[in-house]
Amino acid sequence: MTNHLKLLIPLLFVLSGLSATSQTARQESPIDLMNRSAQDWNAANLDKFMDLYDTSATMMTAQGRVHLKGIRDLYLKYYFKDGKLLQSLSYDHYELTSLGRDYALLTGRFILAANIDHPERTGIFSLVFVRRANGWKLLHDHSG
Fold first, then answer.
1. Which of 55, 107, 122, 130 is the most buried (most CB within 10 A)?
2. What whole-number distance in Å separates Cα of residue 40 and Cα of residue 86?
């Protein structure tokens, strides 16, 4: 092995480790994503809020599972009027459980704040997240 290769191999290991470390540092946890999604919701930015969801995401409803477009339609129908947010959103009581290297279960409680037109509503959720190349994404939403 030449001297150049002897120097290059350790350098490649160091660089690949730095790349993996910086990629891991950039990826927000599912809890961080939920907190950011509440900020997006409260800014009445449904498109940004929907970035939380994977393109193959589903949500459980009383009528069965709906896919991404159905999820967005439900939010528009029940929580927005003329592009305006009806109630602000927050979460608490998080509990995160690993389901393997690339999957996680996040449970907790959502709170839709009371205002002059709407009483406070709370409920629980269980969410399955999947780790994609671009970070954690919500794969399945079961809220009620």
1. 130
2. 14
Strand runs labelled E in the chain: 53-61, 64-67, 80-81, 84-85, 89-98, 103-112, 121-132, 135-143
Q: Across-strand partners of 44?
A: none
- pLDDT computed for residue 10 by the predictor: 38
Global pTM value: 0.79
What is the length of the chain? 144
Rounded-to-integer distance, Cα 13 and Cα 25, Å:
18
What integer pLDDT is reported at residue 27 of this predicted model? 76
The answer as to CATH 3.40.50.2000 being correct for domain 28-143 is no
Rounded to whole angstroms, the Cα distance separating 94 from 29 reads 12
